[in-house]
Amino acid sequence: MSMAAHEPGAWAEPRKAPFLAKLFSRTNVIIGTGLLVLVLATAFSADLLAPADPNALAVQNRLKPPSSTHLMGTDEFGRDVLSRVMHGARTSLVIGCAVVLVAVGIGSLLGLLTGFYSRIDMVLSRILDGLMSFPGLVLAIAMAGVLGASSSTVVIALGTVYMPRVARVVRSSVLVVRELPYVEACIAVGGSRLYALFRHVLPNVLSPIIVQASFIFSYAVLGEAALSFLGAGVPPTQPSWGNMLAESRTFVVMAWWMAVFPGVAIMVTVLGLNLFGDGLRDALDPKMRER
Amino acid sequence: MARFILQRLVLLLPSLLVPLFLVFILLHLAPGDPAAVMLGADASPDQVAALRERLGLNEPFLIQLVSWLKQMATFNLGESIFLRMPVTQAILQRVEPTLILTLYALVIAVSIGMVSGVISAVNRGGPADQVAMGIAMLGVSMPEFWFGLMLILLFAVELRLFPVAGYIPLDRGLWQCLWSLTLPALSVGLVQAAFIARITRSSMLDVLGEDFIRTARAKGLAGRVVIVRHALKNALMPILTAIGITFAVLMGGAIAIEMVFNIPGVGRLLINAVSRRDYPVIQGIVLFMALTFVVVNLIVDVLYSLIDPRVSR
């Protein structure tokens, strides 16, 4: 959060319109938004638009290359790859959202507490650093191994792994904001520290939280794909991009379409999120640019 | 120097303990009896009871915690339930491919990432920068294991330059071994090169704006000397941090890649252990990864103090 926003006069200028104009002034953001809209529309309309039932088996049609009836070909059970990719979008987005809620919710809370209370900070930050430094995927796999593979395990595991990143970013913003005069003023006129934290500090660290949310979303889509690919994610019956890639591994030599299309879907989603997130960061928080 | 290393070691301790504690606590909080889960549905109650006894699950929580700490500190990780051998032995048998793969990928990631990052920064805004950063953006947006599948399609299936999968052990010759690991190392390495390129570029851009760069140019030094000796040397700290992070990511990425290319490494051991719920092995691998991480970061810290002596003071 920059100081400039709190100088007198900063209040006079309307904030909302320039922000959107600034955000969408870059080609990258427009491309990113376009990709995201495409993925979102696919996820919402998968039931209506998908040419076939994603789980309909037709063994006589197995491993057919892309054609006019099956635009992305069929897999080893004769299921339509395009329909599975479309339904996979839903799995990825739902899990991505849930991971963002868990990671950003808990991460922001811990970031607020560690940034504001130095005594909590001493202990909690060491724990969070320890959690953050460890290879996230390994920890998520180990957690899936202990808890059993399922969609909710994916959310818990990825949420735990990404939460410290949010906490660290929020903490560093809180360290700046808590020294500002209006926080001191709030406490001086008798507000409790907890009140000052949630009423005055939280609203002023929202922009880094929003920026982090967009990046956590992209990590979560990649993480879910990796966990499902390794058999530690969503159950194989559910159409998911990671599961589809796991199945494609056996047939990669004879059925390239099974491996190519789900991966392209992942890349389109993550690229959209990254481009959008970069734009958000530049528009909301110019100081974070170099990270 | 010894004091500095000791200090860093203490700071790195949480990276070792936190993941281990997390797995231990999950094991005890998870619904269901771990012994019953491990043995599967057709185990007799006697078998479950015997395994509970062997794993010490009948003791009170605190006693279990203490004996677990003792085990971890002495590397006595117990025995794998399915492999019927000590966990340490099972891990050591599979360390070789994982370690070589990770180092190979690290070399690829660092060399390609740093070179393209420097080129981007020097030609800021030019076509070289835009192409390199565009590729880097694509690189950070795709899963390594999918990139690996695509490399198989192109270089192994279409062009037949590399084997589709498999690993040739080191004792059959270094070149043979590296040959078999080239596609896997490229899959993880190139994706991480994208990350390092982005960091190198922004760190270089910061330094290139400094006064001493202008001075160096003004006194007539050749462009290349300024870039490498003056700029890159000063931009190295954030890059080094990124390399430390990369190592951890590479180890994680190596797991998925080992599955793609059928490499008998620690990653595949972990995945097999997860599907069989072989808890001692899972815990052992978490300990192994955490230890490797601590050692690598200690090396990074020492390198820091060599590049910039102010750090260790």
Overall description:
The complex is a heterodimer of chains A (291) and B (313). Helix content of chain A is 71%, strand content 0%. Chain A is an all-alpha fold and 291 residues long. Chain A has a single domain (67-290), classed as MetI-like fold (Orthogonal Bundle), CATH 1.10.3720.10. In chain A, helix 3 packs parallel to helix 11 (256-284). The two termini of chain A are 15 Å apart. The model of chain A is unreliable at 1-11 (pLDDT under 50). Chain B is mostly helical. Chain B has a single domain (87-312), classed as MetI-like (MetI-like fold, Orthogonal Bundle). Chain B is globular. The model of chain B has no long low-confidence stretch (mean pLDDT 83). Chains A and B meet through helix 4, helix 5, helix 9, helix 10 and helix 11 of A and helix 1, helix 6, helix 7, helix 8 and helix 10 of B.
Kindly list the characteristics that best describe this protein.
heterodimer; A: 291 residues; mainly alpha; MetI-like fold; 11 helices; elongated; B: 313 residues; globular
Name the overall outline of chain B.
globular
In CATH, what is the homologous superfamily of chain B?
A: MetI-like
Instruction: Kindly report the name of the CATH homologous superfamily of chain A.
Output: MetI-like
Shape of chain A: elongated
Oligomer: heterodimer
Unreliable sequence segments of chain A: 1-11
From the N-terminal CA to the C-terminal CA of chain B, the straight-line distance is 9 Å
Rg of chain A computed from alpha carbons, rounded to a whole number of angstroms: 22 Å
Individual helix count of chain B: 12
Taking all Cα atoms into account, the compactness measure Rg of chain B is: 23 Å
CATH topology of chain A: MetI-like fold
Topology:
The complex is a heterodimer of chains A (291) and B (313).
Chain A (H helix, E strand, L loop, with lengths): L15 H8 L3 H23 L31 H36 L1 H16 L2 H12 L3 H27 L3 H8 L4 H12 L1 H24 L11 H11 L4 H29 L7
Helix pairs in contact in A: 2-3, 2-11, 3-4, 3-6, 3-9, 3-11, 4-6, 5-6, 6-9, 7-8, 9-10, 9-11, 10-11
Chain B lengths: L1 H28 L4 H6 L5 H11 L5 H13 L13 H36 L4 H14 L3 H15 L15 H35 L2 H8 L4 H39 L4 H11 L2 H29 L6
Helix pairs in contact in B: 1-12, 5-6, 5-8, 5-10, 5-12, 6-8, 7-8, 7-10, 8-10, 9-10, 10-11, 10-12, 11-12
